[in-house]
UniProtKB/TrEMBL annotation:
This is Resolvase. Residues 2-144 form the Resolvase/invertase-type recombinase catalytic domain. It comes from Nostoc sphaeroides CCNUC1. InterPro entries: Recombinase_CS (IPR006118), Resolv_N (IPR006119), Resolvase-like_N_sf (IPR036162), SSR_resolvase (IPR050639). SUPFAM superfamilies: Resolvase-like (SSF53041). Keywords: DNA integration, DNA recombination, DNA-binding.
Length: 172
């Protein structure tokens, strides 16, 4: 039996540390080790089959393996996608653990209802984030403030990437 932990952030400016910490605490409490961490930097809106979790659930993990997610929203931000992922896991005999809620999701009616409710909550959360962001941008625009970064200015991580490329090109 292998144990995998799937960590996902939406952008490279976010940190996986909190997810990793929560999963390690959960794994220690439930005697789950060693853990192979799968890290992904992609929006939860992307189809799960096209993310690292798709390969993990469809190819890498085998029957009786354990896949730990820090919370349902790290699986996907769509109720339908969460349910599809769980159906795939049940079909392949993969055990799914949700660390933050201390749950094990299986083929039981209770697990399906729980997954549906948590998936729906994640979907609603995503919609509220989009709504708040849109409202904040509209307010800034109405106040005459510039949106986005100033023209010609690069983001900090892009500057680092450019500087790293310059250093590499200057090596003998």
């Amino acid at each position: 039996m292998s144990i995998y932990a799937y960590l996902r952030v939406s952008s490279d400016r976010q940190d996986l540390h909190n997810q990793r910490h929560g999963i390690l605490e959960y794994a220690n409490t439930h005697a789950l080790s060693p853990i192979q961490f799968i890290e992904d930097t992609v929006s939860g809106r992307e189809k799960w089959l096209e993310r690292g979790v798709g390969q993990l659930l469809n190819q890498t993990a085998q029957a009786s393996d354990v896949v730990i997610f820090s919370e349902v929203s790290r699986m996907a931000r769509s109720t339908l996608q969460v349910l599809e992922m769980l159906e795939c896991c049940v079909r392949r005999g993969i055990n799914v653990h949700i660390a933050k809620q201390g749950m094990v999701l299986d083929d039981s009616m209770q697990s399906r209802i729980t997954a549906f409710v948590l998936g729906l909550a994640a979907e609603i959360e995503r919609e509220l984030i989009v709504l708040r962001t849109t409202e904040a941008l509209a307010k800034r625009k109405a106040e005459g403030k510039t949106l986005g970064r100033p023209k010609g200015r690069q983001s900090a991580h892009l500057k680092l990437d450019t500087r790293e490329a310059e250093i590499r090109s200057n090596k003998p």
